[in-house]
Design brief:
single chain; Rossmann fold; seven-stranded parallel β-sheet; six-stranded parallel β-sheet; 16% strand; globular
Length: 407
């Protein structure tokens, strides 16, 4: 099968890029030929004889909006000229308006635009207007892209419902949850002494119950403010916060709430797997999330998870491994959830074991195999249709399914 993947990045260290990297590696393992329309590709893919990289440079163009537009135009032009030589095209969201056989949706801009925490509702300035414009145009483009796709893959049940809400038939939607590296994100040592040494190395407080919050803390979307207000009601709990501090209002909020000694802002960190191995639980009641990798990473690290229904991927959190709040902004409910875990160490340990068991069902390998199984299923169906519907005299050598170019 000749497979084409269209996305900005195909490499580790990038959320959507990692998904496509793993899918590409699985396709290679099965002997398929890949054409990658991307701006950045992992060196090991670039050097593989089964891979053709069509580089689409966008570096140097101002703003993400312009870079995305240029990428969409250039990739659509290439597909228009070369679609007849491709058996299956996988596109990600509104990255390109050409017809895709599979469109993988990691974020639904139409839903984000309606969210009460959209940046344009909190920033009544030029930047807020830019964010509104960016989201509004993507919301329009994504609807067109989804309508053209044979199968639309949602990365969470939440995303699947959002797709239905904007008119995508449920019969064309498949849910494939993103994966996690089960070796990188693994439970830490259980002994108290080992954990104390680990925390000391990371600059985290020892001999306390320590929760973790990780995400962009420069906006209210991830909901650190509710976590801080709830922490006031849970005096025996400390909180480590991972995220860029510059421009964040939350260190000042923590100080005003008298939490400076219990909330530890550690800045943006790349050693998040190490940090997860040293804490006791993960708290992330985001106000809007399509599907967050960090939640699955916490589960894989053997951490009890407290999250909210507005967080994509929350459906993975069972009562055995965590707590899912119906309202992200309910301070009292969050405080009660935190207290219910902090008060009984045995409960946290049991939940941590259950969390790891859940995560083990969602490895990167499992995710990639599911994608490539889907590609092969669609390819076989197309081949079967070509043999059924066409006589030998009119049957082409290859029959790509889906439209043959962009509008």
């Amino acid at each position: 099968m000749k497979l084409c993947i269209v996305t900005h990045k195909i490499k580790k260290g990038d959320g959507q890029g990692r998904v496509n990297y793993e899918v590409a590696q699985e396709a290679i393992r099965r002997g398929h030929h890949l054409t990658l329309l991307a701006s950045e590709v992992a060196p090991e893919l670039e050097d593989n004889s089964q891979v053709d990289w069509v580089k689409i440079p966008v570096k140097g163009y101002p703003t993400e909006f312009v870079r995305n537009f240029i990428f969409a135009q250039k990739s659509a032009d290439w597909l228009r000229q070369n679609r007849s030589g491709i058996d299956l095209v996988k596109i990600n969201g509104a990255i390109n308006l050409a017809a895709a056989d599979v469109n993988a949706v990691h974020f639904v801009h139409s839903s984000w635009l309606r969210s009460p925490v959209h940046i344009s509702r909190n920033r009544r300035d030029l930047y807020g207007f830019y964010q509104w414009l960016f989201t509004a145009f993507n919301a329009r483009w994504e609807k067109q892209a989804f309508q053209k796709a044979q199968v639309v893959v949602a990365v969470s049940e939440k995303v699947a419902q959002e797709l239905v809400n904007i008119g995508v038939p449920r019969s064309r939607i498949r849910v494939i949850v993103n994966g996690v590296d089960l070796e990188e994100f693994a439970p830490g040592e259980s002994s108290g002494l080992a954990r104390c040494r680990h925390r000391q190395k990371l600059g985290l407080p020892e001999n306390v119950t320590l929760a973790l919050f990780a995400g962009d803390i420069r906006t209210p979307r991830k909901n650190l403010d509710t976590v801080l207000h709830a922490l006031v009601k849970v005096p025996d709990l400390h909180l480590a916060v991972v995220g860029h501090i510059e421009g964040s209002p939350f260190p000042q909020l923590a100080a005003s709430l008298g939490l400076s000694k219990r909330v530890h802002f550690v800045g943006y960190r790349r050693d998040i797997a190490e940090i997860m191995r040293s804490v006791d639980l993960f708290v992330f009641p985001s106000r809007y999330e399509a599907c967050t990798l960090v939640l699955l990473e916490a589960l894989s690290s053997g951490l009890p998870v407290i999250t909210a229904t507005a967080t994509g991927g929350a459906e993975l959190v069972t009562p055995e491994c965590g707590i899912v709040l119906p309202d992200s902004d309910d301070i009292d409910a969050l405080a009660l959830a935190l207290m219910s875990l902090v008060s009984v160490d045995a409960v946290m340990q049991q939940m941590g074991q259950a969390a790891r068991s859940v995560a083990e069902q969602y490895s990167w390998t499992t995710m990639a195999q599911t994608y490539v199984d889907l590609f092969e299923e669609l390819s076989k169906n197309a081949e079967h249709r070509s043999h059924t519907d066409l006589s030998p005299s009119t049957r082409p050598l290859t029959l790509p399914f889906g439209a043959t170019g962009a509008n």
